[in-house]
Every structure is written in structure tokens, then in C-alpha cells.
Hints:
Layout lengths: L1 H33 L2 H11 L3 E2 L1 H8 L3 H35 L3 H29 L1 H19 L5 H18 L2 H6 L4 H7 L4 H17 L1 H4 L1 H8 L1 H9 L7 H6 L3 H15 L7 E2 L19 H30 L30 H16 L1 H10 L2 H18 L6 H29 L5 H25 L5 H19 L16
Parallel strand pairs: 1-2
Amino acid sequence: MALKRSSSMKTQLVDAIQLQELELEEEINTSSSNNTPAEAAEAKAQTEPKCYTVEEAVESIGFGLFHILLFIIMGSANIVEAMEIMLLAVVSPEIRCEWHLEDWQVALVSTMVFLGFMVCGVLCGYVADKYGRWKVVFGGFIWASYFSLLTSFSPSYGWFIFLRCMVGCGVAATSQGFVLKTEFIPAKYRAYLLPLASIFWMLGSMLIIILGMTVVPTMGWRWMIRFSIIPSIILIGLFMFIPESARFQVSSGNIQGAMSTLNWIARMNGATLPEGELRETEVAERGNAFTLISPAFRKTSLLLWYSWFVASFSYYGSVLSSSELLEKNLLCMTDADPEHQIKHNQEEALCYCIPFNMADYQTLLISCLGEVALIPLNICLLNIFGRKPSLAILQVLSAFFFMLVNICTTMFGFTVLLFLLRSVVSMNFNVVYIYTAEVYPTAVRSIGMGFCTSFSRVGGMIAPFIAQVLMSRSVILALSPFATACVTCAVGMAFLPIETRGRALLQDA
């Protein structure tokens, strides 16, 4: 009897519990049906676990100590790149003298460097999107340093141009450092920090010119190249303090690695990550070049490829033109000294050896300052007008100053014109870098940058044959292609479909 009573009590208890559950469920359903859609969404959000994206984490961490370290170390990569590129302008008179080179052979040296850059630019972008930005940049530093050192032992002109081509391949890899840097910087700081990278490019340009002034006259160009790789060696050690891009880690499915990176950056900055867990879908198609010519990006890519071509064409045109004008005394000077009144033309076989004098080095050194003098103007253009108008304005100014270089003036006047020309072409290069890094999504950002830099090197390959070969025939004829290309590019910028000012970096197309 007691057993039967106990069983009956258990049955009643279970029935009571089930009844309570049914009543509770009905009450929830009734309340949810009476709620507005916004209240229902809020109630659903409260029951689901909180999560955040890499973009939200980067913005939450903000700017701090890590970004200062990133800016200095990755900015120093521009020192290395600038030294390798500007070395061509400084060493050209020396190798012309040593191997009795003609104008086209001197121009071929620069072309071979940009050929290596062009071929490896796309390859490095593909590898960076597939396997990581950090690996590509680090490998590029080692590669460029090694072959630059070998260049100083070149026994002949043929070996020299081959080894400089190999250096170009390494420099192509280091340019992916701009992508790595961009992906860590919060949106509102990019227009301020990224233009400041010109400071490091200027330092590299000035450093190689100073080495030319001090080392070449006493120890020769080979020792100048050996000394020039010291910053690369230092940078290889410092680069160990920079982590892989958290945006890349997330896109490749490495959520744990991205969390470790973001936590480390947050601790350095004294900040905290958003509440919840990092959650973002893995991007299956990374490094897919066809995305660049998909309907969403086709017009942008085509216009960007041309704008990169012109940016490089005009920048290296300004550098090599100034070097050629000074080396051969082709300037129209109203106050020329007896030495600079002699116009050197290789066809007349006046001289194979026309080394820079101290005044020529000083002119080049002052012109390098132009690369940073107008950085405040660059920042104002980016923040007030945006990326697209800034590109158009700078291209028009570049064309204007290219044509002014041909006028007769004093040596001081030429230095001022060269200073302003270097300012605007440098700013243009900087803005096109920023726009490219912002407009493409993470899944194809590196290969997008790789394609753009490769097209830019086509401009770099053509520029020496105009600036160093055609210049001897006619100064105005050599300067006109640079001005024409800049004006055409300025018109093209009006058709860019996307403005990236203040826009978050996209993760996937």
C-alpha cells in the first residue's frame, strides 16, 4: 500500500512540473508575440553569446604604443626600399665611367631592377594572401640584402644588372609591409599615419646621397653599396617584434592566432578587447586574382593599374631626370659657372666619366627634403577632399612642375622647382598606396597591391629610357611624356567608383 501511494505521489509531482513548464512556455510565447520587432531582436541578442569582428577589435584597441612601434619598424622598411632605388641615381655616373657605358646601358640598369620588381610583385602578393604578410616581408628583407651585397662584387656590367634585378625581387616583397601596417591601424588614424611614412623614404634617399658624398670619392661605389645594407640587417632583427596581421589570420581560419595577436596589442596599448569572442567567417578564396577584375572591382582595378603606372613613371622620372640634368649640365642656367657651362653629350664623345661634384650632391640632397616638406598639405587633402580628389590634384601639379623644370632659371630656382616636383610626385605615390590598401578586401588586398606595384614598375622600366636617353637629345621632349601622363591620369581619377575616406577595411568581397 505504501509503495502504491509513493508511486502515485511521484506521478502527481511529474505532472505538476510538466504543467508548470507548459504554462511558462505559453507565457514566453505570449510576451514575445506582444513585443515589437526591436524588442524581440533585443531579447534574442541577450540570449545569444556576444561576438565581435577584427575591425571592431582594431577600433576598440585604438592607437597606442604598439602602433608607434609598428610605425617606426615598418616605416624603416621604406628606408631600405628608398636606398635601393635612389642608389641607381647615385651610382649611374660611377658605373658609366668604370665600364664606359652608353646612355641606353645606364638606363637598362634601372629597368632591370624594376623588371625584378614587376615579375615578383604579383607572386609576392599571391603568397602574402595565401600564407601571410609577415613571411613575405621578412623574406624580402633577407633576399634584397643578400643580393645587394653581391652587387658590390660585380666583376662586369652583365653581372651588375643581373644582381640588381634580383635586388628588385626582394624589394617587391618588402612593399607588402605597407599592407601589414595598414591592416593594424584604426580607420581614423590612417590618413594621418600613412602619409608620414614619407619621412622614412626621405631618410633613405638622403642616407644614400650622403654615402655617395662621403664614401664614393674616397672608397668607391662598391663600398657605398656595402655600407647601404647595414639598415637592412638591423631591420631584420627589429622585424621580429611585429606580429602577423590579425585580419589575415582570421581570413585563413586561424582564430586562435588572431586572438593572441589582438590580446598582445591590447596589453601593449593598455586597452581592452570588446566583450565576447572573436567570430568571423573564414575566407575560402584568398589570393584569387579574378576578384580584381570581377564586376565589383573591374573599373577600380583598371584605373588603379594606370594610376600606379603614372605614379612610378613620374616619380622615377623626376629622380632620374634631375640626376641626368646635373650630371651632363643640361640645365638652362642664367648663373652657370664655367664648369657647368660645358654641355656633355655622349654622341660627341666629350667624356665617359662625368662624376657628381659636391654641389650636385647638395642639390639632390635638398630635393629629397621635398618628399616630406608638404606632408601637412597631404594630410589636409586626404582628410578634407578624400582620396580620389587628392590624386587628381597632385597629378595636375606634377604635370605643371615637370614643364617648369625646362625654363631658364638660376641654380637656386632649379633647386626650388626640383624640391616642389619631388614633393608632389612623392605625395601622389603615397596617396595611391593608401587608396589601394583601403579599397581591396583582406582576401585579395596583398595580391591587389602586388598587381598594382607590378604595373607601377612598368612605368619605372620606361622612365630611365626617357629620362636618361632622350634627355640628351632634347630636355623638353624628355619632360613632355611625364607631364602628359600625369594630366591623363588626373582625368581618369574622376571615374574611380569608390571613395575610401573614413571607410572600414573590408574582409571579403
